[in-house]
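Any chance you could type out a protein's amino acid sequence plus the matching backbone structure tokens because I've never seen that pairing?

——
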Amino acid sequence: MAKVRASDLTINREKLSIMKSPLAFSVIPQIPARLEALREIAYNLWWTWTPEASELFRDLEPELWVNYHHNPAQILRYIPQARLLEAANDAQFVERLDVLKKRLDAYLGRKDRWYAKNHDDKQDLLVGYFSAEFGIHEALPIYSGGLGILAGDHCKSASDLGLPFVACGILYRTGYFKQRITKDGWQQSDSIVWNFYELPITEVLDSKGKPVKVSVRITDRNVWIKVWRATVGNICIYLLDTDVKENNEEDRKITYQLYGGDHEMRLKQEIVLGIGGVRALQASGLNPTVFHMNEGHAAFLGLERIRQFHKNNGLTFHEALQVVAASNIFTTHTPVAAGNDAFAVDLVLRYFSEFLVDLGVDFDAMMKLGRPWHGTGQDPFSMTILGLRLSRQANGVSALHGEVSRGMWQCVWPGVPQHEIPITSITNGVHTQTWMSPEFRRILEHYLGVIWEDNVEDLKAWAKVEDIPDDEIWKTHNARKIKLIEKVRSRVQNQRLREAYPPEEIAAARDLLAPDVLTIGFARRFATYKRATLLFKDIARLKAIVNNPTRPVQLVFAGKSHPADDPGKRFLQQVYKMAETPDFKGKVIFVEDYDIDLARYLVSGVDVWLNTPIRPLEASGTSGQKGPINGGINCSILDGWWCEGYNGNNGWAINPGVTATDPATQDEFDAHSLYSIIEHEIVPHYYDRDSNGTPHKWIHLMKASMKSVSPEFSTFRMVQDYCNRLYTVAYVNSGRIKADGFKVAKELSPWKEMIRNTWCQVQVAEVIWDSKVHHLQVGQEFEVKARVNLGPLKPSDVTTEAYIESDTNHSQPYGVALQVIEDLGSGSYLFGGTVKPQDSGSFHFNVRVIPYHPGLVQKNELRLTAWCEAF
């Protein structure tokens, strides 16, 4: 036998290391039969709001749990086979797995959920929910911020409530971006290329076992879209991916990055989401009866649905529009102009010239759908206006935002009184189980019972928070605070290591923050209107607050700025540099790469959640709703949801009711108010302790915050509102318009055309009333008559009203219907009725005529009004 020398082995190893081969393969572990349930749990994102499931995967392989972004699917691909075999022989581990499997089966198998109890007569309803981003968990990185987190929580509660619901979004190859802060505080954007086979998603397969793919036209070519599925409890999110071999390199990049690229790339993404999304759901065997657009990114779905009704059902464009709009819901999320996409005319023409052939309408008519009602050919194509025009149900995301939106989008309903503009409001909420820490969940279940799936909104249950002993709730809060501090220290130390900070500063990261110091958190997108720098308006005053020798304060900041938002980046840099100054070092901390993982620690660990937007630019906000379910307290501008959540006893309102026309002056007012609240209310409450160190006044505020905010501002309540007020209404309206071979749609379309062509002849010629009646008591009445010229229209084609408005601004305007009392001939009619004021004040009135048809969904659907002008 030949002898083998050590040098030969070395040479052989070197040859092996430099061998080049195009052939590669991967090996995944074989899951023992006894652990097969691990796979089912890993691929149902139910585990993201089930702490025991996360703990099971963490304990299975702690190092991989950290390294793989808390992603069970990736762990099951790379865990050593020996560890799986070891776990299969661990009786305690197997028992924990069995318990979780039974819980998942019970969750999926429940038949008595809220929807079944309340809407069992609408079993063929299916909601299709479209969003550009979904924030389910850090293991599925297809979100950037609040819009995505809201969408993810919406999906989770749709599952909890048993809604017939399916969602559609985009599967981004590089997600949003990973934030890296340099030593000088400038944000850098890094990308991570994700392997989709390592994410908790699966390919959608057709009946032959092949991946489902659909195509859309992008200028002169077909772009192919592969469909993936994420399972979230009882519902699924279908995700669109153009990074497939059938596409050229340019088209493969369409779904690379969330909100990446220029306007043209954004247009391509929105074609993929809106048009491709409808086709993807259909190719997957799903045909929603109601479509919900979460912001304007998905508004092209309305055009695709019109195209299909035109092509498949023989409807004209305008007939199809009636059907589609009746079953569409549009949610607007921002009153900031930059948050509403709009595209140049030439860009839209280039991308939709072929699509128009199948749409059954010319380019100008299509463009009108994305412009103000009295827009011109120079106006860009607004996706928000398109969404509003192609939906008969629309909403803002808080009561204040609904009011702001009605003013902001009055250009879509010109001449319609602002309060009648058909944009309602449904205030955002959060998924309680997702954002409540395991520690708080345990004590709340002990004192409140298990309420998460069935009655999160139960005020009586939440009132039992008062039964929790103060020392127990304080101990629980401090345990979470320590975990937050550990998370902050770890992240800051890693950042300093990467950026080559001096050794003493790297070591100092291990001692950042103190658990016994009042901690205020600020974490959100770094847009200028959110005013992250407001706290630094008066540096001397902030120094005194932070460095108080007996009652200090520490501040934790986090958040990303959009990569193209340099002003936002400069705000971030200002905060970061301020944190590096001697007076604030170690007391003010900026933590980079804000994500869902860090958010869980922040909302459950800080004492106070701070929010300082310019009112009324915060549409709703949800981060502040996550703190109270963990005992946190809000200090915020009265904007968004906090206008409804603040009751005077559950937190603090910054500068309530004081406004200035000059932004700089407003900043001064708000900063002064904020400093005063911290100095005179927050700090004294926090540091007022008994002999055992328990701050009873503070805990009283914690409990007030928890029991007032948690039941009301949850997606459990929010999704019920969407279902009761929008989904089921759209379902009924759609069914009515489609019935009997689209009878109503076919009647409405020519009727609307006739109304538009003849409306110029409609005139309120005279209003007749007893002008001596100037002083009434509540409950007294007076008669109003009006002579109205209708031209060729019939009285049944219109609604005629005496429209009463208050001059004292404490009564909502209202209309009193007037009926025909005499046909005067030649298209002229006398209408009459009785006005009976029910409130005191100073009023004025006029008579108006608006079109009416029993098939209309919105009162002001035609945006036509004739007022009396003969005074």
